């Protein structure tokens, strides 16, 4: 069985290794060494993703390995994190000036502990392929650049979900990224404002036309960045907008993408002297699995074997699982005991992390 104290040591050690997106080398080196010590064959692809393979010992030669995945990077503010346990010895949090980094250090620690416990209890049973990706935050870039020729797994678990491990994510949306650069006409705001075209005003006009926020139960949209202007006395010549559309329904995603394009076209007609360069591109595809899917049933078996009740849920967020699905790998996200992702209020429950390590062990070492 997993060792609770070892799990706490592992996760706190990982949290103290700074790994904001793009700066994963230190944690990669640590994880590579840990996996090598466990007997894994460790590889890296050209992007720097870590892929480690461990053979099983239950006579399943020829069967594909199962995947255990998490990501190595964290969001900001995520440097110099000081994790501490509260008085009850369960809730792990930062000092409040940074994130905790439980997303996804808890997932990494769970995988390491699950493998270690399985090996201590007689071996893995099934062959395992560990995939620790880089640059998951902000675009799933590590997974999208993963060298899938290194991957033999066809199903598995992604340890990157909120809440308890019993929460299995069976559906997630596709995402289209929306970016636009607007070029207006600069002019002195006090002497000749009528000769200028404000790029920010054009952007504001566009914003009033867009369907934003919660559109329906499976569709959302947002403009998260609006930048522009140089000084208060200059009509702003440049503006930049960065946003997204998400839906678990592809037809809805296409429909609202068309509505977005119409809004930008309408603004362009209103401001013929402005140049509007719009780029809408797909970042990842949606997925949905049925309750009878063998990969889902395999995860549910492990959850049940750990004494928990599987809870099948859909989400509005994306994960590396979306990219794995595009490559024919049914790897589903499960909870890692973390809450309030991406905030300085982030916490991790050691009890729930321990449960997740038990599930991980039972997944790779079936009874």
Automatic annotation (TrEMBL):
SUPFAM superfamilies: Bacterial exopeptidase dimerisation domain (SSF55031), Zn-dependent exopeptidases (SSF53187). Its cofactor is Zn(2+). The keyword Amino-acid biosynthesis does not apply. It comes from the Eukaryota. Pfam families: M20_dimer, Peptidase_M20. GO terms for molecular function: metal ion binding; metallopeptidase activity. GO terms for biological process: proteolysis. Residues 179-269 form the Peptidase M20 dimerisation domain. Keywords: Hydrolase, Metal-binding, Metalloprotease, Protease, Zinc. Belongs to the peptidase M20A family. This is Uncharacterized protein YqjE.
């Amino acid at each position: 069985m997993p060792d609770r104290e070892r799990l706490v040591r592992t996760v706190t050690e990982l949290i103290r290794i700074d790994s904001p997106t793009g700066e994963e080398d230190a944690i990669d080196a640590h994880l590579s060494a840990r996996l090598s010590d466990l007997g894994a064959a460790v590889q890296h692809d050209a992007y720097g993703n870590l892929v480690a393979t461990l053979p099983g010992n239950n006579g399943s030669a020829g069967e594909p390995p199962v995947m255990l995945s998490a990501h190595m990077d964290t969001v900001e503010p995520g440097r110099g994190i000081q994790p501490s346990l509260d008085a009850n010895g369960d809730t792990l949090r930062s000092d409040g000036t940074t994130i905790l980094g439980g997303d996804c250090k808890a997932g990494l620690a769970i995988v390491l502990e699950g493998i270690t416990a399985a090996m201590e209890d007689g071996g893995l049973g099934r062959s395992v392929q560990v995939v620790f990706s880089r640059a998951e935050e902000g675009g799933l870039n590590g997974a999208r650049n993963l060298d899938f020729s290194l991957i033999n797994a066809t199903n598995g678990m992604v340890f990157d979900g909120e809440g308890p491990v019993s929460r299995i994510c069976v559906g997630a949306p596709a995402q289209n990224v929306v970016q636009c650069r607007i070029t207006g006409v600069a002019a002195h705001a006090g002497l000749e404002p009528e000769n200028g075209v404000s790029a920010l005003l054009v952007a504001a006009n566009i914003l009033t036309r867009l369907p934003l926020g919660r559109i329906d139960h499976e569709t959302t949209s947002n403009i998260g960045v609006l930048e522009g202007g140089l000084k208060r006395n200059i009509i702003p010549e440049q503006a930049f907008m960065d946003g997204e559309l998400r839906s678990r329904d592809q037809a809805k995603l296409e429909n609202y993408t068309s509505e977005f394009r119409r809004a930008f076209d309408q603004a362009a007609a209103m401001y013929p002297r402005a140049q509007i360069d719009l780029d809408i591109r797909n970042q990842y595809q949606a997925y949905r699995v049925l309750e009878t899917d063998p990969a889902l049933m395999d995860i549910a078996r492990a959850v049940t074997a750990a004494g928990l009740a599987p809870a099948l849920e859909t989400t509005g967020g994306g994960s590396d699982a979306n990219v794995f699905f595009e490559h024919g790998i049914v790897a589903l996200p499960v909870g890692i005991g973390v809450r309030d992702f991406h905030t300085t209020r982030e916490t991790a429950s050691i009890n729930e992390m321990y449960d997740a390590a038990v599930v991980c062990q039972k997944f790779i070492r079936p009874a």
